[in-house]
Amino acid sequence: MPNDDQENDRLDIFHHMVGLVIGNKLHLSPISKNPGRILDLGTGTGIWAIEAGDEYPSAQILGNDLSPIQPSMVPPNVKFEIDDMEDEWTFNEPFDFIHARYLSASIADWPKLMTQCFQNTKPGGWVEFQDFDYFYFSDDNSLTPEHSISKWIRLLQHASYDRRGRDACPGPKLFNYMKDAGFVNMKQEIFRIPIGPWPANKDLKRIGEWNRLQLMEGMEAFSLYLLVNELGWSVEEMQVMVAQVRQNIMDRKIHAQMLL
Questions:
Q1: CA–CA separation, 7 vs 219, rounded Å?
Q2: How far apart are CA 61 and CA 235, in angstroms?
Q3: pTM to 2 decimals?
Q4: Residue 38 and residue 30: Cα distance in Å, rounded?
Q5: Dihedral angle sign, alpha carbons of residues 252, 255, 258, 260
Q6: For residue 6, is pLDDT > 80?
Q7: Burial of 56 per CB tally in 10 Å (0-12, 13-18, 19+)
Q8: pLDDT tens digit sequence for 109-135
Q9: Can you tell me whether residue 93 is helix, strand or coil?
Q10: Average pLDDT for residues 58-71, to the nearest whole number?
Q11: How far is C-alpha 239 from the geometric centre of its chain's CA atoms?
C-alpha cells in the first residue's frame, strides 16, 4: 500500500473513526492504570502510540512498523522502530499490553504472530486485536451481491488472500487464532460500522460519515495495488470499477455496513 501523505491522512481518519466506534477509547482491554511496557504492532503513523503515551505516562511504549512514517516529536515515553512483526521477535522483556489494529491484508502467518504475542506478554498481561470483516452487508437487502461495491470487495479479497496469501478480512478469525495460541480470559466484541451517513442514530451517522471518507480516500490506492498489480487489470478498467463503487457509496438508499 502507498506511504504518501494522502494514505497517512487516511490512517489518521481511520484511527479517529475506530475511536468513535469503541466509545472514545484507545482500547477495550482492562489494563492497569499504570502499565509498564506497551507494544503497538503495525503502528502506522504512530497516532495510537502517541495518544497512549499521553494517557499512560508511566508506560514505555514501542510502536513498530515496516514504514518510517512516524513523527519525530513524540512524548518522551514513546519510541518507534522499523521492524517486520512477522520476523522472529527478539525483545528482552515481555509486555504488559500488546495492541494491534487494522492488519488487514498484511499478515501471511497469523498463528505465528499470535504465538509470538503470547510468548512476549507478561503473566496477567493483555493482548488486543482489532480488525475487520470487509464483506459488506445490509439488513434490508438494499445492498446485493450484484452491486459494484460487493463485487469490488470480493475482488480485493481474492487478490489479497488467494494471490498473496494475506487475508483482507481477518476479523472473524481472530478469536480462534488467539485461543489456539494459548490465550485465556478472552472476550470478543463485534461492532457494526455503517458506510455513509444513512443511519437515523446521530452517533452512527457520524461514524458512517468518517467511514465513507476514509474509504473514498483509500479506494483508488487499494484498487491499484490489488486489482492492477495482482490481478492484471488495466488502469482504465480499475478506474471504471472505482467510479462505480463511489456511486454505490454515495447512494443513501444503499445501507451498507461492515463489522469490526
A1: 10
A2: 41
A3: 0.94
A4: 13
A5: positive
A6: yes
A7: buried
A8: 999 999 999 999 999 999 999 999 989
A9: coil
A10: 94
A11: 24
DSSP 89: P
3-state secondary structure of 249: helix
Q: For 57-131, where are the alpha helices, taking DSSP H only?
A: 110-119
Residues contacting residue 145 through CB under 8 Å, at least 6 positions apart? 151
Q: How confident is the model at residue 142 (pLDDT cuts 50, 70, 90)?
A: very high
* Distance between CA atoms of residues 156 and 229, nearest Å: 11
- Answer yes or no: is pLDDT of 65 > 60: yes
Q: Report whether pLDDT(136) > 70.
A: yes
- Cα(89)–Cα(176) distance, rounded to whole angstroms? 22
Instruction: Quote the cell numbers at residue 4.
Output: 504518501
Write out pLDDT tens, residues 205-225: 999 999 999 999 999 988 998
Q: How far is CA 239 from CA 3, 224, 235, 236, 244, in A?
A: 20, 9, 6, 5, 9
- The predicted pLDDT at position 134 comes to 85
**192 DSSP 8-state letter:** E
Amino acid 1: pLDDT:
54
Structure-derived torsion over alpha carbons of residues 177, 179, 183, 185, reported in degrees to the nearest 10: 130
Helices 110-119 and 174-181 pack at an angle, to 10 degrees, of: 50
Non-local CB neighbours of 105 within 8 Å, separated by 6+ positions: 1, 156, 160, 164, 166, 167, 168, 226
Q: C-alpha grid cell for residue 69?
A: 512514517
Contact criterion met (CB below 8 Å) for 37 and 95: yes
Residue 4 β-bridge partners: none
Residue 133 to residue 142: CA distance in whole angstroms:
19
Rounded Cα distance between 149 and 159, Å, is 15
